[in-house]
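Hi P.,

Sorry for the delay on this. The queue was packed all week, but I finally got your sequence through. Input first:
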Amino acid sequence: MFKLPNIFAVTLLGAALVAGSAQAQDSKYNFGAPASAEEIAGWDIDIRPDGMGLPVGSGNAMDGEEEYEVQCAACHGVFGEGEGRWPVLVGGEGTLADERPVKTVGSYWPYASTLFDYIRRSMPFPAPMSLSDQQVYDITAYVLYMNEIIEEDFELSNENLAGVKMPNEANFFVDDRPDVQNPRCMADCADPSTMMLASSLAGVTPIGHFVDGADAPAASHEGQHDLEAQKEADRKADITGEEVVASHAAEPAAMSAQAQAGEAVYKGACFVCHDSGLAGAPKVGDAAIWTERVGQGMDLLVSHALHGYSGSAGVMPPKGGRMDLSDEAVTDAVYFMVESSH
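Then the structure:
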């Protein structure tokens, strides 16, 4: 038999739950504030393949050549061939079915809008979003021209960029196959050690291979590096053009063992800023700038490289942002830059 106080308590509890539920549906969590139109515009920067999002403007390869040489060539090469392990932009046609395909803008990328979008958001490294829309149109046009996708005098604009057809566009399609369910192996399973991957960083792009297994292109780091070196040699052998060397160029002075040890670190971690002078970085080979810095003492110079520097001459994060490098490796790189700039 129910008693009145119990019925009253249940009634109050039910009313409270209903009221709480209704209040939760009508109220917010009281975090943050509604996004303003300016804030949304700041995030809404992507460019779609149909051209939506493109800023009004235009550019061409003739104007883009100079911009490319200033902003891009230090890493991507004068002809888009890629310096060291930096990304290759040109070539690679007919290699996508190979064991080691060369994926470039011309051979692999599906849409011209992807190129524009990526340059606008992320280039040049490490000063993204520093280019004007005009510069992005010009550089985009020049990279497309180097890949023989547009003519040199083609005026690329927000009105026609979506109509530029990339050679590999048809090979990108929606995969409508059902999701795959991978059942857990309970018996007669492969040895996990045969599926372990090892990688090494020889420049900006890591490369890797299976620790144990013949299904890798090379079964060792040495073999993998040999493949990469051969690939780069073959690629550069196909480049047309003549490298001009000054007849009065002096023989380079012999480097110390420490500087020689720092060369690989420089090429892999320091080159992009110290070859081009980005963010006020002293350019390797500029004797006047480096003499001034060395005059302050090598200890101070190494300290700035290890712990960072911010001043009127520029900005450098600790270890150039490469905190994975040892103090010894960074110090060796500093000696390489100094001895390369006498």
